[in-house]
Amino acid sequence: MMAARSLALIALMMTAAIFGFFYAWICSTMWGLDTLQPVQAIEAMQAMNESVRNPVFFPAFFLTPVALAAASIAAWLATQTGPARLFAIAAAIYVIGGIGVTAMVNVPMNQALATIDAPTAVRNGADIWQDYSGRWQFWNTIRTLASGLSVLLAGIALLSFQRASHTNSASGQMS
What we know:
Layout: H1 2-34, H2 38-51, H3 57-62, H4 64-77, H5 81-114, H6 125-170
Helix pairs in contact: 1-4, 1-6, 2-6, 4-5, 5-6
């Protein structure tokens, strides 16, 4: 049971990390970029999109569903079917709403933006940025909601472990 709870805590922390990443884009980064001149916003977003591919970001983005699945399996092996289901659902929601949306929408948008030569886009930069920012923020909100729901489910699953452990301890059973 201890290994299952440890995996559950790691999964919760990783899911919270990616939720926080997406959330920060909603409440500060994109709003800040929207205050810049469009060419500056395009250049800044291009730089951020290039820099996000790094070894610090990788585990939170790509390994979160692995951690959630591992927590699900560990819970199932510990005969904690409720938490196991919650972790599995959290993993599926994040894979679809986090990784899937990123791969299908945000990354292609970022790749298209990367082809823009910002200094020569001065004439139509406002149109380019306005179109990009609005759509990108909508889909980032979907990623944020999906990862937030995954955090919530992982948290409920972890709390369910603790309740099961306390119930088993109170009744004299080993957990």
